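Notebook, p. 212. Picked up where the previous page left off. The plan for this session was modest: take the two constructs that came back from the sequencing core last week, fold each one, and keep the raw output in the notebook itself so nobody has to go hunting through shared drives later. Recording the first one now, exactly as returned: residue sequence, then the structure token string.
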Amino acid sequence: MNPSIRGAISALLLAACAANGHAAEWKFAFGPGKAPAGYTPVDAVYSTARGYGLEPGGRPDGVHPYYFSVDLPEGNYTVTVTLGDDKAATTTTVKSELRRLMLENVATRPGETVTKTFTVNVRTPKIPTGGEVKLKAPRETVEEAWNWDPRLTLEINGAHPAVRTIAIAPAHVPTLYLLGDSTVCDQPAEPYNSWGQMLPRFFKPGIAVANHGESGETYRDSLARRRLDKIVSGMQPGDTLLMQFGHNDQKQIKDGKGGPFTTYKAEIKAHVDAVRAHGGLPVIVSSMERRGFDADGHVIPSLKDYAEAARQSAQELNVPFIDLNAMSKVFYEALGPEGSKAAFAAPAPGRLDNTHHDSYGSYELAKAVVLGLRQARVPAAGFIVDDFAFDPAHPDPVAAFAVPPSPHHTVERPLGDEEHK
């Protein structure tokens, strides 16, 4: 069946259920034993005819990571998972779509079951008001296709992953939208990662994180590729947009097409105006620094003007501001010139990317963003997990970081920003 037809049918079924006062719900069982009443057993590879199943290359064997996909209409969903094994201790991590961290190392004892709930966002390129997002091919149409297809994909990972059941239901909740470059977007493969991918882990159920960032982009690209149009087309009062660009905007100076205190600020204003016009709350985030130290162990500023322009824009437009640039410098300096290497991606032996982060670095930067939301008293901060705490001057020890890596690996550097010289 054609994917667009299948998606339309799913949307009609969902609307029919809502009209009849019944919430649509999808329930799946992964064993062991007979599936509970009302649950569909999952024992086959995904097919378009079936509309759900395991992605090729992995099965629920309690040892290796695997992926499960189900067709869903665009929107936010509450996902409830029951974890545990009758005979063994388990540790399960769940990521959604492209490696968005939802549950981190949930442990169960032999014979114990634990139920956890999180909120996810599913989207397609289509813009309800007309047209669609201008995706980059093949990056977004192939490597990042899971971010844009009409289905939810869950990565089940961990030392002994054990999912017994998954239940999915539509969720009418606030959305926390993200817009930015390669340091924000959902990177498709290890060792690259972004703070946008780690952010969902630090929020309770009841708010959905929708990451619309993309590698190599600027505020200008957001407008030209209609990413902002896509976001505001679905924005509701109470929704929030976090915006962080800067790394790639620097190239506009070299090309003679703009600068931080002219075009950059004007493009920020265009985003702020559009979000406000649709009832949302815009939040400006300054870009984190690149890794580079002087002889005294201080971070060499490479984005100073853009960080200042972002700050000025927030003040002039009266919107919340998160100074990730300042917090990143404190974070890197706390680790030191050598220790900070552990926060950046190393795609191959002897190669260190001093702009893009690995899972540890992005996890810590996500905590910095969460701290910024709390300090700025953004309403979305009301959904921060109860045990959250972070001080960029005292980051989590590298040795204690234990989020399991995803199966896919790449040596290809994300699009856009060149290493700062």
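Okay, moving on. Second construct, recorded in the same format:
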Amino acid sequence: MTRGAGFAATVALSMTLAACAGRIVPPGEAGGYPSRPVREPRPGPSSRLPNGASASRIPPGPIRIVPATPLPATPVTTTPGAATAAQAGILAGPPVASLPMTEGQADAARAAFALSCPGLMRRTDSSGLTQGADWQPACQAAASVAPGRARDFFARYFEAVQVGDGRSLATGYYEPEIAGSRERRSGYDVPIYARPRDLIDVDLGAFSTDLKGRKVRGKVQGSTLVPYDDRTAIELGSLEGRAPVLAWGADPVEVFFLQIQGSGRLRQPDGTIMRIGYDSQNGRDYTGIGALMKARGLLGPDQSSMQGIVAWLHEHPEQGRAIMRENKSFVFFRELTGAPQGAMGYAVTGQVSAAADPKFVPLGAPVFLSMDRQDATGLWVVQDTGGAIKGSNRFDTFWGAGDTARTVAGGMSARGTAFLLLPIGTLARAGLATTSGAAGAVPQP
């Protein structure tokens, strides 16, 4: 949802402690949920298809991690410092028909892909892998696939492509629900801001071709463009009179994590729901507080999840406020009247949509993730981006809303192999055969 970063990004500690989505997440690494009792999940939004099939990746009953064995990537020498997928190089993946996707997953992905097609064909692919016209045959066919033939559709119109070494990391994000109110009232005094009137976006590429694709945000001070207010200044009231207050939250920690996720629901005192989504950000760098807290020895072995971090912040309000302010990034919201949207401007679907770096994945493209856990394995459609979702084969999977989504996304850290599904002919244009194990990675022209 064009997230400012994404949960994993904030919690980048359970994964590798080093390193979230478009729209919200981070570098997760050591996979798995935190140690806590397994509980029955509350039903969340399901990917229920018109033909009655279900694309749900979460089986009914208690939430448990089911291990899986990823498909192997083809060994390849990667290009250091590659800035795009074309520079990283591509090679053929396995035949699409051989990928272990369910019909339900395929049909849900087909629907999301069809929704994304107008943008996919219109946008310039900054990955350097495809052109808009390449997608036209698949897009035309996607709208009229017969029930039960979605897997055949992908096998007919797509070929699997490995980018670079193919080694993938997948984290998770979700649409949170927190207590909020349109009006300030007792117990609701944390401002949730709309975009400030004096926030300026600058496309540096308009000034120099060497800076093409780079942007900054700031404000004008006198005759100079300066960095915009950071989190500390904003929380101390610097935006008064400069930015509309969209709503008021009840808990500063929950509002902080709402910014990380990039969109969410505000449950008001009368029980009604107000949906808000990412509008802009202050231009400051994102810092994942989970890694900071882990490095400082503030978290125990069972606290390396979003839930564990939230609990610690609540238990140590003053110290927690100071730590949250070390993340200078601040997200501004707008009210949504429909489903949450990704960076492409289309609705995202729980257990179907994912975020990635558009320099390595064409926005709107399907991707098959073969991971070390079953719930993350399968076909996804990249419809979103995230401030901390950068580089090749880095994905952030969207799980929808509700307690189940929160639990799964909060503990999601999966590793394995990623295969982009690109239009038939992509490999031939790069001079590669379409069978797995063909020649090594060859950069696109």
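Notes on construct two before I forget. Residues 116 and 176 are 24 Å apart (CA to CA).
Flagging for discussion at group meeting.
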